[in-house]
Write a structure and sequence with these properties.
The chain has 79 residues and is an all-alpha fold. The chain has one domain (3-78). The protein contains two helices and no strands. α1 (3-24) runs antiparallel to α2.
Length: 79
């Protein structure tokens, strides 16, 4: 995982913790708070999944680029 991916995941984790703490300390009824936590946790899961997918796509792109560069280098050395 590169630095950008780590920053994105860390940011999302920080926002997630902040939202949960904000909801838990909000002066609302327990049932309302539980509903908000359930709804927000679904949003958090989606955000983390998107960040993970972006990281995987970045890794795949770097792999393909490296693979092509290595093939070019091997072909050049063979000549």
């Amino acid at each position: 995982m590169d630095t950008t991916s780590k920053v994105i995941v860390g940011f999302i984790a920080g926002v997630s913790v902040g939202m949960v703490l904000g909801i838990l300390y909000a002066p609302q009824k327990g049932a309302t708070t539980r509903k908000r936590i359930a709804r927000r946790s679904g949003d958090i899961v989606d955000d983390v999944r998107d960040a993970f997918d972006d990281s995987v796509d970045g890794i795949k792109n770097k792999y393909e680029t490296t693979k092509k560069d290595a093939k070019k280098w091997v072909d050049k050395v063979k000549k």
